[in-house]
Specification:
It contains 12 helices and 18 strands. The chain is α/β, with parallel strands linked by helices. It has 3 domains: 3-49 and 112-187 and 292-369, 3-Layer(bba) Sandwich (FAD/NAD(P)-binding domain), CATH 3.50.50; 81-105 and 190-290, 2-Layer Sandwich (D-Amino Acid Oxidase, Chain A, domain 2), CATH 3.30.9.10; 380-435. The strands form 4 sheets. The chain has an 8-stranded mixed beta sheet with strand order 5-4-13-14-15-12-16-18, sandwiched between helices. A 5-stranded parallel beta sheet has the order 7-2-1-11-17, with helices on one face. The protein has a 3-stranded antiparallel beta sheet with strand order 8-9-10. Helix 1 packs parallel to helix 4, helix 2 crosses helix 8 and helix 10 crosses helix 11 (402-412). The protein is globular and about 65 Å long. The chain starts with a strand and ends with a helix. The structure holds flavin-adenine dinucleotide. Flavin-adenine dinucleotide is lined by residues 7-13, 30-33, 41, 43-44, 46, 49, 51-52, 130-131, 165-168, 171, 195, 286, 288, 310-312, 318, 321-325, 327.
Length: 437
């Protein structure tokens, strides 16, 4: 291709630009926000919140940006291995997973390294502007109109291929509807989640701990009665990033004292940090109302030369930490699609099918878990009660046994598809663990 345009230069847009740089002579990333030294952009307030990178997301990051882990660690990020990564359920530390690895870094830090790597690719350039419309020629995308400091109002940038990476509130569907195209059907689930993140000075109060994550499970009927749900990560700048989460009336607020009180009702690592470490700055809150995905494969028509990635395609409940990993896996789908020498005149159905496969897995896991909350009212999949009964038992077995937990966490980390939890050998081991308890 001569030119590919990526609308949106955040996490998903950056990885998409990296993939496109293998296939286009000129890649333009259109991003209106000046993402400064603090790595924060106006349109993405979620960047303030603790972002965990699942191990599959980490693997994919290293695949597209070799050496980035070393670079991040040199810059102050922490790489947690084995016992440095701790998961608690209903207040109990889960069985260790040999070989577990997780990176501790803030989202702005991670993303600023990604941006630097993408900007260093000779034929990728950033255009500080807002995408204001899609140029359609016949049945295909042929460019983007822009407005902003780096472009004249209404300027048209021609392209052979266009990627929508404009996040959850992408205007693409409205643009398409305006031009007479059907909007992609949307699946959604209302979860009414509240998030609050605060930073703390980090000393040696938790030894080599990099990640501690705690969630309610079957023993508390997934309610914050035994412990508060929350997590901490050792991040660059000798800091802890601490997040608390809660649903409906139990959403955490911005009050510092209340944040500390709530941390003291969490598992031991969070209690320790609340007691001995000093909070830096304010508590930042975020409200996430619903998980949402657009399902393009249910359309019969879609413009050629146009794909959708990242939150614009699917934005799922953040407590499962899937968003960044999904963006990377969708970028893989884009790479696989482009490798097959597609005709950009035709709709990218093969891309959407591949991307939907990974979204399906994430969606299945997160929505099944969300349905355990009493205020979440569906939609329920067929056989939900049986599924939940089995999932509760497997979750319980994963607390007790390393081998069961390794496979369970493989699914949580998106290294294995959800169906790995239905393999007979795995189910038999989980049953043995529970019977011998
Ligand atoms: C509270 C919270 C916590 C989260 N925690 C995690 C976590 O722990 N782990 C994890 O993996 N994921 C997490 N996520 C999900 C993650 O933040 C998203 O999946 C991720 O930001 C998606 O990246 P994106 O590039 O698709 O969209 P965004 O990051 O939202 O970026 C969209 C970009 O498009 C740009 N844009 C918007 N309009 C235009 C326009 N008209 N023209 C050009 N550009 C435009 C914006 O400026 C922005 O830069 C969390 C989300 C939330 C809300």
């Amino acid at each position: 291709m001569k030119r590919a345009i990526v609308m949106g230069g955040s996490y998903a847009g950056l990885i998409a630009a990296r993939v496109l740089s293998d296939y286009a002579e000129d890649v333009v990333v259109i991003e209106p926000d000046v993402i400064g030294g603090d790595g924060l952009g106006r349109r993405t307030p979620q960047r303030h919140q603790l972002h965990a990178l699942l191990s599959m997301g980490h693997t994919q990051l290293e695949r597209w940006f070799p050496g980035i882990t070393d670079e991040l660690v040199k810059g102050g990020a922490r790489l947690g291995e084995d016992q440095d990564v701790q998961f608690y359920l209903d207040g109990r530390l889960k069985a260790p997973v040999p070989g577990a690895r997780m990176l501790g870094a803030t989202r702005p830090f991670l993303e600023s390294h990604l941006r630097r790597r993408v900007a260093a690719i000779e034929h990728v350039r950033f255009c500080q502007a807002q995408a204001t419309g899609l140029v359609l020629r016949g049945d295909r995308a042929a460019g983007v109109t822009t407005a902003g400091p780096d472009s004249e109002d209404g300027e048209t940038l021609e392209a052979d291929f266009v990627v929508d990476a404009m996040g959850r509130n992408s205007p693409l569907e409205d643009w398409l509807a305006h031009s007479g195209w059907d909007q992609a059907p949307v699946d959604s689930m209302r979860v009414d989640l509240g998030y609050a993140t605060a930073m703390f000075h980090r000393g040696d109060e938790l030894g080599s701990t990099v990640i501690a994550h705690s969630s309610p499970g079957p023993a508390s009927n997934y309610q914050p009665t035994l412990t508060e749900p929350g997590a901490l990560a050792a991040v660059e700048g000798e800091r802890w990033s601490v997040v608390l989460a809660g649903y409906a009336d139990h959403r955490p607020g911005p009050d510092r004292e209340e944040f500390l009180r709530r941390m003291r009702r969490c598992v031991a690592p969070l209690r320790t940090v609340a007691d001995v470490s000093e909070m830096i700055g304010d508590v930042r809150t975020y409200r996430f109302v619903e998980s949402r995905r657009r399902v393009h494969s249910r359309l019969t028509r879609f413009p050629g030369g146009l794909v959708v990635v990242g939150d614009a395609l699917a934005s799922v409940n953040p407590v499962y930490g899937q968003g960044l990993t999904l963006a990377a896996l969708e970028a893989n789908a884009l790479g696989a699609y482009l490798r097959s020498h597609p005709d950009p005149q035709n709709p990218a159905w093969d891309y959407f099918r591949l991307a939907e496969t990974v979204v399906d897995g994430a969606w299945q896991l997160s929505t099944a878990a969300d349905l355990a909350q009493p205020h979440v009212t569906g939609p329920y999949p067929r056989g939900y009660r049986v599924q939940k009964w089995v999932a509760d038992k497997l979750t319980e077995a994963s607390v007790l046994d390393s081998a069961v937990n390794a496979q369970y966490m493989g699914v949580v980390n998106m290294e294995l598809p959800p169906k790995a939890l239905t393999q007979p050998g795995f189910l038999a081991r989980a049953a043995r663990v529970l019977l011998s308890r």
